[in-house]
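step 4 of 6: structure.
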Amino acid sequence: MKKKRKIHIFDTTLRDGEQSPGASLTPAEKLKVALQLERLNVDVIEAGFPAASPGEVEAIQKISKQVKKPVICGLARMVKKDVEAVKKALKFAQNKRIHVFLATSQIHREHKLHKTKQELFDLTTKYIKDCRKDFDQIEFSPEDACRTERKFLSDMVKAAIKAGATSINIPDTVGYTVPQEFKDLIKYLIKNNPQLGKKVVLSVHCHNDLGLAVANSLAAVSAGANQVECTVNGIGERAGNASLEELVMAIDTRKDIMDCYTDIKLDEIIKSSKMVSHLTGMIVQPNKAIVGRNAFSHESGIHQDGVLKMRQTYEIIDPQTVGLKGSELVLGKHSGRHAFRDRLTTLGFELTDVELDGVFEKFKILADKKKYVFDEDVERLVEDVVSDIPTVWELVHMETRIATDETPKAKIKLRVHGKLKSGSSKGDGPVDACYRALEKITGIKVKLTDYSINSVTSGKDALGEVRVKMKVQGKEVIGRGSSTDVIEASVQAYLRALNKIAAHIAKKPAKSSLI
Ligand code: KIV
Ligand code: ZN
């Protein structure tokens, strides 16, 4: 079997990634990210663009002193002050690389640089030769390579290698290419410069303007590139760079068809993603591959059932591989009985089929009102349904009317021993109106001695739990009710207390007690 090729991971989160609008980091934050990138085991850290500011030089120096394993790289235009800044920034680095770039496409030559092709050859040769005095590793990028005339691009690459470049990086600066075209370009460059991918590292650097950065990078790898430039969470200029986690996980997950591997420590991926998101303030979209909040969550009943039977039915990556605890079955309106029963078991409830039917029915009603049903919600549902208190008074329907200039009104319909009974009332507030209506319907005089509301779960659609203490026929009784609607929870708590009383009377208890 042919030996697999190593793909070098060149991380540019701290350079191209930090160029994302609003993502700039302090030197201390850059150091934190660099230390995490070292744990992630990237091969090269492009730590910044030293000519940008003295703070950038300071940050790269800090990184160079503490981060020892990966190569530390600094970016420079082909101007003296940039190269000097990189030298200063990297003076403490054990393994260092200078990355010089010069735009080669016609549009950049004519409108940005105002230079001829010959001038570009001369500049490239001169700067790379000069860099050789101070650096063993020199990377050259012909900026906007994908929009450069092929023959000229290949000649520039040849000139850079001849001058002493040890890595050639082909950037798709504006995210313009597509996989077939990029693969073809890489093959063409290798054919005309056979050292590429062998003695000279052949790197690619893809931007995501068409959402193709990862696909283009993988196409280049399949054509012979042996370094990919990428960022954690795919942050970077405009639509960003190729995302490190997507590239690495594609190579690992499809090792059955790939002739290559990376040395990335996969279980550091989530931690790296969280740190970069937290420090840059760039939120990861929930459906982002590998690191998005939903990447390993399942809500549909069919998917949850499948995952519970055999995880691989709907998951191509074991979440633990990237550093997560496991996949998540989100309870919501699409969830089925299988996932619901599984969650009950995890929470320690063993219900009979009949009990499960009752709780599941309530769960579906709640899930229609709430986006997510949390474990606390499930516990409340079980407590509400599974008890030995028979339901004498059951809420069928309730309506309240509250307006700033009107007295609150409530209309309630109950089922009592199979018969429907309705009543309505006004009150000082909606809860008072409901309680007066309930008194009318039940004909039972109640003295409310305590009333409290707590939110059981979090979020705007949290479950509210109401606890009432009331005196009925000389007995004190407590009732609890929970719902996303606190008025409904108040009615449920009241009825629960009445049902307890009914059960108590049926058992003919001692004279006075708190039930
Ligand atoms: O996108 C680009 O062309 C770059 C170069 C500096 C490599 O970031
Ligand atoms: Zn870039």
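step 5 of 6: annotate
 - The chain has 16 helices and 18 strands.
 - The first helix runs from residue 27 to 40.
step 6 of 6: archive
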